[in-house]
## 1
Amino acid sequence: MSEFFSNYGFELLQKTWEHFYISAIALLIGVVIAVPLGMLLARTNKLGNWILTVAGVLQTIPTLAVLALMIPLFGIGKIPAIIALSMYILLPILNNTIIGVRNTDPNAKEAALSMGMTRLQLMSQVELPLASPLILSGIRLASVYVISWATIASYIGAGGLGDFIFNGLNLYDPVMIIVGTVAVTVLALLTDKILGLVERYAVPKGINISR
Amino acid sequence: MLSIKNLTKIYGGKNKAVDDISLDIEQGEFIAFIGTSGSGKTTALRMINRMIEPTSGSIEIDGKDVMQMNPVELRRSIGYVIQQIGLLPHLTIKENIVLVPKLLKWSEERKDKKARELINLVDLPESYLDRYPNELSGGQQQRIGVIRALAAEQDIILMDEPFGALDPITRDTLQDLVKVLQKKLGKTFIFVTHDMDEAIKLADRIAILSNGQLIQFDTPDEILRNPANQFVRDFIGENRLIQDRPNMRTVEDAMIKPISVTADKSLSEVISIMRERRVDTIFVTRNDGTLLGYLDIEDINEGYRKGKDLVDIMHRDLFKIQIHDKLQDSVRTILKRNLRNIPVVDENNILLGLITRSNLVDIVYDSIWGETPAGVDEA
């Protein structure tokens, strides 16, 4: 074991970092697209449900297949992997954003509009903060997904901890597989923990107080 | 100042929610739109700030057609209170109060000053400014809902069944509060209700709507005396028509002279005054007559033994009624709350009179036996 770490220690750190930033960029792109899109779609009844259905269907396509489909379009490497992963996590974020916004208190919205908020002010000052608990938990869920799926992205040459697992499979080296797997799990758990803390501090205070 | 002409709202091509309503409202009037559900009262109200767009007709505020105005700016210039209160739970009370001033980009100091001024107006402590809506009771929340509608110094306040979701006692208190506020600030209030008692108690003029049409628009007295048709008569209820005659009097007619002391008196002086006047309760005022609180004989006994001062032992939270309130409304409240001695004050909280249970009983006897000969003959 210690021999493994002296041989691969540096590579492990490097791959973990690689894994982390592929996931983080994919997550960021997913959030930037899904949250505003979800807030717009929440207003529409039919279109919103329709998009959710389509996104749900996309979700059922195996990750490996999506990654493979990326090759003719974007070639191999990190960029197609990031594109595929961010597409993949659109659903949980979109879903939670739409539900979160639709569930905000209609009376608060009615009051805000009738006192002279513009649509944009209503979205940014009322709907977004009120839906933030659900949106944040969607992001947290997506972050765990994206870290586990990023493992498979190694298959199309994105690098990351998946390299350890795939190399381990090719070389019949169980230690390599286990180290890779444990590292992915630890990364996912840590991210979940950290985002859990973010959630606690980012959700507006008044929302958590109930009589 | 607010002129509504031939206002009509048609849904789905033929469903007339509001049908050709015309009425003029003066600056500083308290107007009630009353009707059964589906009468178009809320639709009519919501067309004033263009939350609903009229199908035809016009609404002018100080001669300006609201249809020519930017709807967002229009809404910021009109206060709005809804039944469900609709405070924003993620904002503090202060942020909720100054929501419209913030949209209008007031300075921090000005917003701060306004929030303090308003919260004092509705008898809530300034420390509440930093709390969140969910930490307040329903009645307290609606007080904030009301002052939120006043924060940007709007001249017109629209209220959609503002007290409908509150319990009867809280509702009573808030009605009184809003009435006093409206008088004090001289703003135009328009509110929607289905409760005739509420309309009679609060409104200067009542607009009765049915099936989208305006049936009668007049003062409560005039509507009670001369209902326009059978519908109005049914709506008011025969009961109230008869009952109302002796009760058209105000509190002023029924009150007696109160016994009071100024707050600088010592307890032994108070005791001798109470003994001399043979009363068990006494009001405490400032030198200018402003009502501060009351003391009853048990408090004094205890305070005297412990060597306390008058200001330490007096009760400061007391229910009071306004001198121009209708007696009928006050009697209801007094009986509901089981109060014995109720001080009567003017807008500035100066103590003017006292209503007791025993003089209410006198009034009831008067109205039953005192004025009846004509009524008996008719029957």
## 2
Amino acid sequence: MLHQVFALVIKELLAVLKDVKSRMVLIGPPVIQLVVFGYAATYDLNHVPFAVYNEDRSQPSRDLVARFAEAPAFEQVAVIHSDVDVAPLIDERKALMVLHIDRRFSRDLLRGVPGHVQLIVDGRNSNTALLVMGYANTIVTDFNTWWAARQGGNKPPATLDIRSRFNENLESQWFIVPGIVALLTQVVTLLVTALSVAREREAGTFDQLLVTPMRPIDILLGKSIPGLLIGSVEATFIITAGVLWFGVPLRGGLVPLYLGLFLFLLSVIGIGLMISSLSVTQQQALLGTFLFMVPSIILSGFATPIANMPPLIQDITYLNPMRYFLIIVRGVFLEGTSTSSLMPQYWPMMLIGIATLAMAGWLFRRRLY
Amino acid sequence: MSTARIMRLRGLVRKEAWQILRDPSSIAIAFVMPVILLLIFGYGVSLDAKRVPLALVCENPNHDTASFTAGFFQSPYFVPVRFGTVQEAEKAMRAREVDGIVWLRSDFSRQMLSEGDAPIGLLVNGVDANNARIIEGYLQQVWAVWLAKFEAAQGLPLRIPVQVDARVWFNPSVTSTDFLVPGLIAVIMTLTGALLTAMVVAREWERGTMEALLVTPASIHEIILSKLLPYFVLGMGGMGLSVAMAVWLFGVPLRGSLWLLLASSSAFLLCALGMGLLISVVSKNQFVAGQIAIIVTFLPAFILSGFVFDIRSMPAAIQLITHIVAARYFVTILQTLFLAGNVWRVILPNILALVIMAGIFLGLARRASHKSLE
């Protein structure tokens, strides 16, 4: 029995890897995507273009402007002298922010009345707008502390001492690159499995497979193992690149990581094979793959937090294996989470895997056209 | 000659239209997929952190700590939970029960009243760096409000020398839905456009019916045009549905003109269909066409288009790469048309880029199909 399964595995691997185009599709894009996405998917702001509209032109206002111009997050692109210049700069996306200093600024400041600074921010990307305001607030707070100290005023009664755990400098890459492990592994594994049964159905060779002495469980094994192998190689490659190339710390052990990977692959393969055996044509299989893959990525917490979703959609995400695996990869990478505390993430993936694989195996025989 | 051409074209278009009508999957791709995806994502994708679970640790609860923590109970952004010790709170943070910890040490009020500068310890879970930064921003707001109140109550002059008054144009309440939904339309239309053509033509190559078409008097232009037209109509239908949902369901303002939206959508759809056509002509087999379509459409449109990740934050080399992603231009157009209005100097160059890309894709598809005749 075992050598039959083995033969099927070899055949499946050959079917995927023999064709030059198909081989290229599996190896080339993931490598390129890892590098491109690893750098592209960032929420950090660098060189935000901003314009200065300084009506005050005194020393304190110039000090404040200098703090913005020197900050790595900002880059001064224009100096304007009237209200009418503001709109074109923002509308045409030449500047993301206009720093407007009122003409009474230094007078107020020296009199001990709060001086006013107006920020006009492009809100087309609301997240960038929020971050820009956050950075600007930090710069102004620093200026305030410096000014108060210079004027010999009292210290504020309490100050904030903000620290972040696990990702001390809040680098986006530390959050995104572990996410890419899950993202690309899922895409490649789905590609290998989701069309495999549908293609044979369309060609008619699946019927031949069914009349061989192989039991559905053998066929299931033969169809699953290639995905497991290719997915593991892919994930290992990305994990290695994440540590060595992107410098993301791997604080936890390999056991919790690879246990998670195994269960994740199992569930993705199960879903892929289920889609494949439900479809009559490859076109349907592709459509099914898309209809699963796109929501599973967008609703996984990869780019936007699950906690921000409405309750009903949060409930739907419990069916999504990537949701659990993302928590595992990020937990093991950044928090060094142990196997035992990841149990709540392991068993749902195992359940999804067993249920979908069983369903796929059952469909092999039932769906005959 | 020209009437014969029109007749041939009409015949071909009719054949394609029948084929679409008989195969429900194309209609599903064009209409059902955009609606379902927009429905799920419009509600599901949000960067607005609300009701963030926060641990409050007051080692020595008294009037002063209460005045500070009251801000968290009033804020719509936080759901505070009290913990006795920092160790317990940290345990809760590890278990992902809270996203941050506010720690007021036992000497908080003594230090506050005697020398000032009493430290308020804030510990944020930084795994999701973006979320952590947004939470920090909210925390700073709570602190600033408390400071102003405290000083006013003490009858002290306000010790905040410079006050920031921020105005966010186009999206004053900074809701992420208004920003994400237009981008989502671009992502969804990329999928729809490419999927519509990628598989269909590849299937014809596989079955040999494409060869049959090629030996008819119909020219390669006519064949390509007849494949594009019906799918173009379908795709524009899906686009119309998405825009209607964005405006009426999600309440995103549409400040630009409808005509400009129509023009840019047509340019983009031609681009997406052209890409699908090229994929199918090059791969000539559904298996590979499907794989390529998955890899080159969704992920680049998701990550490299500026839909969530701001292109201006990317390294220069990556910014250069984003220029070959058609969705990038469409996302810019849609975000501007929806939120800012008809800003010609943003919209025109981007439409031009889309037209050029559509020309390249269709031209390449045409050339590739010609070769195979030989």
